[in-house]
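Hi L.,

You mentioned the student needs an example of a multi-chain input paired with its predicted structure. This one should do, with 642 residues in total across all chains.
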Amino acid sequence: MKVLVTGAGGFIGATLMQLLQQVGQIGAQRITQLAAMDRHLPPTSPDIVRIEGELQDAAVLERIARFGADLCFHLAAVPGGAAEADPALSRRVNLEATLDLFEVLAARPTAAAAPVVVYASTIAVYGTPLPDPVTPSTPAQPALVYGAHKRACEILLADATRRGRLDGRSLRLPGIVARPRATSGLVSAFMSELLHALAGGAPVTLPVGPQATAWWMSAQCCAGNLLHAATMDPTLDIEAHRERCWALPVLRLSMGELVDTLSTLYGVDGHALVRYAPQEGVEAIFGRYPVLDDRSARQLGLKDDGDARTLVRRALAPYTL
Amino acid sequence: MKVLVTGAGGFIGATLMQLLQQVGQIGAQRITQLAAMDRHLPPTSPDIVRIEGELQDAAVLERIARFGADLCFHLAAVPGGAAEADPALSRRVNLEATLDLFEVLAARPTAAAAPVVVYASTIAVYGTPLPDPVTPSTPAQPALVYGAHKRACEILLADATRRGRLDGRSLRLPGIVARPRATSGLVSAFMSELLHALAGGAPVTLPVGPQATAWWMSAQCCAGNLLHAATMDPTLDIEAHRERCWALPVLRLSMGELVDTLSTLYGVDGHALVRYAPQEGVEAIFGRYPVLDDRSARQLGLKDDGDARTLVRRALAPYTL
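Structure written out for the whole complex:
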């Protein structure tokens, strides 16, 4: 089985690449070839096919076509903050290049089964404010360009699935921690910053209050879910199988709970190190996550990190699977 | 106020053009210039700006940009059957050229208010089978490429509206009757054929049974709704105002009811002239329309034809406003 990962140089992509190399197979099928695509790729083992460049570049799509993936994890995207600042770029990458990729994957000359596409969508498709609880029937009403383009791609991947061209599975990812401290273009970067700062005993200012609740997941857990999505049977979820979209199960934790967990694990005084400077705009989007009814996703075998300690441990050792 | 109609040479577009010329204004504002865009346009009065060509043609978009519309009725599209036969063409026209149009309209050099876009979407965004009743909270799960692309554009028009670039209003049109008898590329063409045939005393075979229910609207009623949508206040509908999408109010009538109405109005024996040859596939999509909860659309002033007789009379005299 030939497997392609787009956005393989990114935070989640790199974790997924490691996991794929480690397990070496997708369900019962051995990975015969693994390809990594991204603007920039870190050094990789020599048996990995490297496709370096922009997804919107015809030469990159041509190389993807030649590779001929049986399974594609599509993670490459312009992130939320950057997309909002440049909607035209978001359209080019998050919508059009994504649809181009879907077409290239679907256009296989062989009579083989439709390629599986595991698409990294986002909880940003729901918009704000989120209803409480969020359920599989919560309407998607994106309030950011990023979420709007991701939602459009979910719909069009489901349509390609209906037409038998692809076998799509869209996972709506929550904020994944702990991202590297470099600028990620994500407004939610403070979630990762909290973990890095307290683990290093450093002070940190949060743009939300201690009661602010968010949905949390480690990159390791996320990579495991992406891998699982490739082999799960979407038809077991009767409600969602037509749309093929699932919000990943999450840990719903307040900032205060995270601070307590970090304080215990790293032996620091979180209450002294954390300053809360709530900004209404940020808190409205990233600080009021309600209960998520994720039962149907769990039924399919998708998972959260289990508890706050495991989340933090995994999040701060993302490359040790 | 400068007004543009795309798809102005089509069945609904031509009716809307006539209505706009007749009323000469949008709400309290006089129409100072009217532009008609389509692949082919019928002869028009000399004061209408003619933009003949394909929407996906850069020269056409350039001319639209130069026109500088304050209000655009966007009706141009590859219809459902044709889109399903050529998904790549549907992507090019129904998705990408539509987004290009939105960008051209939004990119006005002046500091004027965001241009109003009345977008002809479709009840095909709901997919099949339709739940009973269909309500404003019924999820859009398109089961045709056409519906998927239209749904994506609804979402992206709502996003441009949120960003203050456009003032979008998406109307989900039902099957509109009575289309000209030439091939329209629509699977639902039999609905119009029934009207033409019985009005002319001719036999007709329907791919659905007498109990098959559909949602009906005349082109005249549809044009009136498009015009109304340009001036209505979308924020009065609290539930739907973020998405800016409304299914038009409809008459829900069975084929048998239509046959009876036509028989009375035209003095023909409909029961002798109509042969029912139900095809399961067609009946599933076009013959089982449930109740539509259209109260919020009515509240905004959108309307159906009133009764079956008025529908039929208007439908068969579409150019007599």
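You could point out the following to them. The mean pLDDT of chain A is 93. The radius of gyration of chain A is 19 Å.

Best wishes,
N.
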